[in-house]
Amino acid sequence: MRNKVMAGGEENNNEGKNSFTVLVVDDDTVVRMVHRMLVTSLGLKVQEAKNGKEAVDLHINGASFDLILMDMEMPIMNGPTATRELRAMGVKSTIIGVTSCTFESVHKDFIEAGLDHCVAKPLTIAQIASFLLKSNNN
Ligand SMILES: [Mg+2]
To answer: How many other C-beta atoms lie within 10 A of the C-beta of residue 106?
Structure first.
């Protein structure tokens, strides 16, 4: 049994039916809150990390997630570096880069770090649902 932590203290009535866990990695408190609300409204478990290093440390400590929503620009460790480290550790989770930058070249660099996909902020509930379908098919 993997160690999964549920944030927010909300009741999850889909326990057993849907055990997807999502890690929201973002240095912006508001973005983390919005993304957490979207994830929990889908009945999924969510955990948060404030930067890439926290995300890597969670995995070093044995945590695993079905889906990781990874911000690009963060202090201490940015999204591309964290994504490279996670892939080097053998993490197979679906990792979606989430960025406010619209330049294709920036997305390309981030994707090459090991992302499955890169999208613009803020995420929509439909996008998160589609990522879950993809990770379910893996
Ligand atoms: Mg940021």
So the answer is: 16
In the reported structure, the alpha carbon of residue 91 is separated from the centroid of ligand 1 by a whole-number distance in angstroms of 22
User: Is residue 11 in a domain?
Assistant: no
133-138: long-range pairs with CB below 8 Å, 24+: 134/94, 135/20, 135/66, 135/67, 135/93, 135/94, 136/66, 138/92, 138/94
42, part of any domain: yes
Q: What is the CATH number of the domain that holds 125?
A: 3.40.50.2300
Per-residue pLDDT of 62-103, as tens digits, reads 999 999 999 999 999 999 999 999 999 999 999 999 998 777
Sign of CA dihedral 43, 60, 98, 25: positive
pLDDT value, residue 85: 98
Residues 74 and 52: beta-carbon distance below 8 Å: yes
CA distance 61 to 126: 31
Distance 4 CA to ligand 1 centre (A): 24
Flag whether 5 is in a domain. Answer: no
